[in-house]
Structures are given as structure tokens and as C-alpha cells.
Design goal:
The complex is a heterodimer of chains A (144) and B (384). With 144 residues, chain A is an alpha/beta fold. Helices cover 38% and strands 16% of the residues of chain A. The termini of chain A are far apart. Classes of the chains: A alpha/beta (144), B alpha/beta (384).
Chain lengths: 144, 384
């Protein structure tokens, strides 16, 4: 049987993490292709429902990553993101999701290698955990 | 299901077009583009697309005010619910409040593999037993906790107060560790598939537990279990009771003595408990039994009562907020210092309206809001 390949959705902010992923690409840093990046203008605009939908549609893990506290293009995005992420983690914890499937990171523009390392570690971790408890849900009908 | 079947089932063809529904509708009062009469007319004339692709289909509060006034007994809320399921099949979902988190949670819960950690809040202050005949339905309270922390609403306060009350009556209720969302919200937004999956799971869990009675602190769960589960063929096979009914019954039978609580209160009838199920007297009896409580009715109360402005977490808009503001002004006009309600969602909506700054010219009245069970728990004294 083929090895389980986790599907990861990364919500990355336009100014830092997305650029870092770009840098990792141009610098030819090798990392597993399991990650699908969704670009947000700011990590502070993360809505818990984005993550819920990701799991509903079959993600095995979600990374939320944006600028460091002092780097934010919109001043206090990471603080808002932290607040949202805390709510989200509590919700997912009650729902029975393993806490390790949600990752909050801060990766700045120049940290392409950090991005690659984070993804690699996350993939290894998820491979150990196996498919997400929601993986049996493959709903076609998802509210807009 | 097609539109023709829905018209037949809900006897919509009896409509006289008298417009009573629109004239009493709390939404139509403020939103000129929403009219129950016009929606029925569209259906009867066979304009299915106009009906289904109208965002306003999701604005209905399903509060049953129109149905009570209807001279022809057209079941408008059920008509809306069924029309919404056609809309869902056509990819229409309304505008979900809280960006659809609560609907997503319900859909995620349909996964058979999840092991929820929904009872982690439970402390040994409360006595529960796995052999009890009485089940207490916790419902969505653990999930509301993180979602509504910024409007200072603690849903688990209601659950904990209910447990305290049950314990003080000598009942050690059973709690189910893997109960799922009762499906109320997905049902009323027209997502029948998800509802059926959830209902099947819950009915099976309850059958397996073999309890004789279920007590609810949330009228929506109560309504869903009492009316919708049997309708969809899920029989839980036991007695169902809202905690206010339980309290009223016990007070009448045992003459429970409460400590004095000095407070002037008014009562908001939740539409699910009031108009849907006809429970108006039980909560009032409970309020009367507590010494020191001065109870005043609002201008519109009992079956006339006005809804809190949103139901099933959909289409919460500025009109919803106006409805809330108006209702809150009505409550403050009675001179009461606290609104008592017995629905966690009424409380969420009113609290949200009081926190929300809204348009600059609108001033939302400030008033305390509390669940009936919290008041009773305070009156029982002892540790909070």
C-alpha cells in the first residue's frame, strides 16, 4: 500500500509567508509537495471558518502563518490572528481534532528555508498521525 | 421534493392573500423587500426561480408569528424550511452568520470517526451518573464558549446552573460524551442530509443509553427532538422536558423554597419554546416562585412576543439588529433591570446587539440579560 500522503492547507499572508514560500521556490530549497498555499492579504483576516472548511474538504492539517509581530503591513494583524487562532484551536479541540494538526507559525519574507523546514516537519508529524478524523467527509455541497 | 409537493404539504394553496403575515412579520416591519405574502404568491404562481434564488428566503426568522395569525392555517415556517431545501439543492445558502462556522461545525460533526472532548469543562462540583434514567442534553454549549467569548456570553454557565438545579432536586443526570449537534440549524437552513445524519446518530446514542427522560436547557434542541425527530422517523422513545417545565412541575409538586432574590425582571419568550411548543406558563411559574422577584411583562409577550432577530445563524443583517434594538427598548421601557430568557441563542443575539455599536444614530439600550436557570441557581444559594 502506498504511504499515506497528508494534505496540508497553508494560509499564508501576502507580505511575509507567501513571499517566503516564493523565496524557497526561487532558491530551490527542497520540501515536500503536500502543502497547498492559500494567500491571505493578512494573517489577521483569517476566519475560523476557512480552517473548518479546509478540514471539511479533506485537509489533514492546517498551517496558519503570517508576519512576525513587528513586521505586519497592517500593524496588528498577527495579534488578531493569534486571537482568532486561539478560538479556533479551542473549537477544534472540543471537536476531537488532535491539537498537532493545527499549526500557528510566523515566517518572514527572508525565511524561505524556515518555511521549507516547517512544512517538512509538519508532513512528518502528520504522517505519524494518519488521516484526519474528518477525512471520511467529502461533501460536495458546501455553503458559500 | 419539488415546489408543488411543498405547496400541497403546507396547504399553501389556502392562502387568501390577506397579508396578515406581512403585517405582523418582525422582519417585514423593517425590511420593505421582505414579504411572506409575496413569497407565498411567487410559489402559488409557480415562479420557482424567483422564490429559490431570492436571498430573502433566508431572512425569515421562522418565529411562527405569521402562522398564528393566518386565517387559513398556512404553515409558513415549514413552507420556508422546505423551500430552503430546494434552494440548497440549487446552491443557494443564504448569508450565514459568523461566516458559516456554526453550520460548518454541524457538518464536521457528521463524521463518524470523531471523538469529541465535549465534557472537559465538567468539574466534580456537579454530580452526574452513568446509570441515571434522566439525561441532560448539553447541546452546543461547549462550542459556543470559544465562539462567543468576545460578547461575554458563557453558554456553559447555563449548563452548569442546570446541573446545579438538577443536583439540588436529587437528580444525578447522565451526560452523553459523544452527543452531536441536534441539527436544528442545518434543518432550518435546508440542509436535510446533514440533519438526518446527526439525528440518526443522536437517536441511536439515546436508545443505547436507555434513559427514560431527557431534560433540555435549550428550546431549539427541545423542539428538534420533540417535533422534528419523529417527523423524520427518528424515535428517541422517552419523555422530553425543558428545564423550565421540569422546574414548574417540581415547584408545584414539592413546593420548593427559594432564597430571596431582589430583582425586577421581564421575560423574553423564545420563539421555539413559546410559539413552536406552547410553553408560556412554566417559566412564569418559576419566576413567581422565587421570593423578591418583581415580574413585569413587556408590551408584546407570550404568543405576541417578538423574536430576538435571527434564527438558525443565517441572514443576520442590519434589520436583525433593529429588531433586537427595538425589543431591548421594549424591555427597558418596563423598568425591569434584567431580561430573563430561557434560550441561549436569545441571549447571544441580545448581548451581541448591546456590544455592537451599529450605526451612529442608533443607541442600543443597555440591560442585564440572564437565563432563567441562572436566576434559579442563584436563588438556590450555596456556591455559584
Amino acid at each position: 500500500m502506498a504511504e499515506f500522503e497528508p494534505k496540508i492547507i497553508a494560509f499564508a499572508c501576502n507580505w511575509c509567508t507567501y513571499a517566503a514560500a516564493d523565496l524557497a521556490g526561487t532558491a530551490r530549497v527542497q520540501y515536500p509537495p503536500n502543502v497547498y498555499i492559500v494567500r491571505l492579504m493578512c494573517s489577521g483576516m483569517l476566519n475560523p471558518d476557512y480552517v473548518l472548511r479546509a478540514f471539511e474538504k479533506g485537509a489533514d492539517g492546517v498551517i496558519v502563518s503570517g508576519c512576525h509581530y513587528t513586521d505586519c503591513h497592517y500593524i496588528d494583524g498577527p495579534v488578531k490572528c493569534d486571537a482568532m487562532f486561539a478560538k479556533l484551536s479551542k473549537m477544534m479541540h472540543i471537536l476531537g481534532l488532535e491539537d498537532e494538526r493545527l499549526k500557528r507559525e510566523m515566517i518572514s519574507t527572508s525565511e524561505g528555508t524556515v518555511f521549507a523546514r516547517v512544512v517538512k516537519e509538519f508532513v512528518d508529524q502528520l504522517k505519524k498521525l494518519g488521516p484526519s478524523p474528518f477525512s471520511s467527509l467529502r461533501m460536495e455541497k458546501v455553503a458559500v | 421534493m419539488n415546489l408543488e409537493d411543498i405547496i400541497q404539504e403546507t396547504k399553501t394553496y389556502y392562502c387568501l392573500e390577506c397579508g396578515k403575515c406581512t403585517s405582523v412579520c418582525p422582519v417585514a416591519k423593517y425590511d420593505p423587500s421582505f414579504s411572506p405574502r409575496a413569497i407565498i404568491e411567487d410559489a402559488l404562481l409557480g415562479f420557482e426561480d424567483e422564490l429559490v434564488f431570492n436571498q430573502k428566503l433566508f431572512s425569515c426568522l421562522t418565529c411562527y408569528t405569521c402562522q398564528q395569525r393566518c386565517p387559513c392555517d398556512v404553515d409558513f415556517p415549514v413552507f420556508i424550511r422546505k423551500a430552503r431545501s430546494i434552494a440548497q439543492d440549487n446552491g443557494q445558502h443564504g448569508i450565514c452568520a459568523h461566516s458559516g462556522q456554526l453550520q460548518s461545525l454541524a457538518r464536521l460533526m457528521t463524521s463518524p470517526d470523531i471523538k469529541q472532548r465535549r465534557l472537559e469543562w465538567l468539574s466534580d462540583k456537579y454530580r452526574t451518573s452513568n446509570n441515571s434514567d434522566v439525561l441532560f442534553w448539553v447541546g452546543c454549549a461547549p462550542y459556543f464558549e470559544p465562539i462567543f467569548e468576545d460578547i461575554e456570553f458563557r453558554a456553559l454557565d447555563i449548563t452548569e446552573a442546570s446541573l446545579k438545579i438538577l443536583n439540588s432536586f436529587g437528580i444525578e443526570p447522565r451526560l452523553l460524551p459523544n452527543e452531536k449537534c441536534c441539527g436544528h440549524d442545518v434543518l432550518w437552513t435546508g440542509d436535510i442530509e446533514t440533519f438526518k445524519t446527526l439525528a440518526e446518530h443522536n437517536a441511536a446514542q439515546i436508545k443505547e443509553a436507555g434513559v427514560k427522560k431527557i431534560i433540555f436547557s435549550c428550546p431549539e434542541g427541545y423542539r428538534t427532538f420533540k417535533l422534528d425527530y419523529p417527523n423524520f422517523g427518528f424515535d428517541v422513545g422517552c419523555e422530553l422536558q425543558h428545564i423550565s417545565e421540569f422546574l414548574a412541575e417540581r415547584i408545584e409538586k414539592d413546593g420548593m423554597k427559594f432564597n430571596e432574590v431582589k430583582m425586577k425582571v421581564t421575560y423574553q419568550d423564545p420563539c421555539r419554546l413559546g410559539r413552536h411548543l406552547g410553553v408560556y406558563d412554566a417559566p412564569r411559574k418559576v419566576l413567581e416562585a422565587i421570593p423578591g422577584i418583581e415580574f413585569v411583562e413587556m408590551q408584546y409577550s407570550r404568543w405576541d412576543s417578538i423574536c430576538c432577530g435571527t434564527s438558525a445563524w443565517t441572514n443576520c443583517d442590519s434589520y436583525s439588529n433593529i429588531i433586537r434594538t427595538q425589543r431591548l427598548s421594549e424591555a427597558t421601557a418596563t423598568g425591569a433591570e434584567t431580561i430573563i430568557t430561557s434560550c441561549p441563542k436569545c441571549q447571544t443575539h441580545f448581548r451581541c446587539a448591546m456590544v455592537d455599536k451599529g450605526e451612529e444614530h442608533r443607541t442600543t439600550p443597555k440591560i442585564e440579560i440572564m437565563d432563567l436557570v441562572n436566576l434559579v441557581a442563584n436563588a438556590l444559594g450555596g456556591e455559584k
